[in-house]
Amino acid sequence: MSPLALCYHAVSDGWADPLAMRPSDFERQLRLLLRRGFRPVGAADFARGGGRVLHITFDDAYRSVADNAVPVLERLGMPATIFACTRFAAAGAAFEVPELADQLAANRDEMQTLQWERLRELADRGVEIGSHTVSHPHLTEASDAELEDELAASRADIEDNLGRPCRYLAYPFGHDDPRVHRAAAAAGYEAAFTLADTPYASRRNLFALPRVDLYRGDGVVRSTLKTSSVKPLVTPLMRRWRSTGRRYR
Predict the structure, then answer these.
(1) Quick one: pLDDT at residue 241?
(2) Dist. CA 96–CA 102, nearest whole Å
(3) CATH code for residues 4-245
């Protein structure tokens, strides 16, 4: 079995959106993976390791991750990385991007993000804090100058505010290509994560490490299929499921 990284967003009972995994489902998924023999590791060990290792990640740095997911991870002894967009971290602002405008209008409280103080607290507890860029753009559509600003500035901001290295990046929307990979390396990251069903995802490329994205509608059967060795055989079915309920990554 190949190494497995998971990509979550919010973890909340109160937000009935594909992005918001129910806490009970979240814990159930992790316990099942442990029973299947996966060994939890941090981002560094995942990036350079092989075999049945597992790493948990969260994009966007929603407050519900600290409230509802981190306690579960600590009980289970599972390392994790939270990828934060630095534009929102100073005030812990709501995650305001064009793709989520409808959700934000109805669920602003659920979409509040973690402030620097809370991110520092989580880092002190062993959670890796990585960059999700400054503003969550489509990086493949950015100019070279915009790429440099989104990648280098966000990394510097995280390091300045947390007082520790920012070593890892997650590409917004899973949008990456070789030019973006080169820019991530030039900005000083050690590795970067994309999504497993994107064109450049590869365990052989430290700047295109694949993650399986999980959503509120992914129950036991679907999440097991998505994280299993038979996933390539069911990818067309996964895409049909996604098209019925997922609007954003």
Answers:
(1) 46
(2) 10
(3) 3.20.20.370
Residue ranges of domains in the chain = 4-245
Pairing of strands 80-84, 128-131: parallel
**Residue-wise pLDDT tens digits, 219-247:** 999 999 999 975 544 444 444 544 444 44
CA distance linking residue 160 with residue 191, whole number of Å = 20
What tokens does 88 get?
């929102």
- Per-residue pLDDT reduced to its tens digit, 38-64: 999 999 999 998 899 999 999 999 999
Q: How far apart are CA 5 and CA 176, in angstroms?
A: 17
- At position 200, the amino acid (one-letter code) is Y
Angle formed at CA 15 by CA 9 and CA 17, multiple of 5 degrees: 65
Measured between alpha carbons, how far is 246 from 19 in angstroms, rounded to an integer? Answer: 8
Q: How many CA atoms lie within 13 A of 43 on its CB side?
A: 28
Beta bridge partners of 209: 193
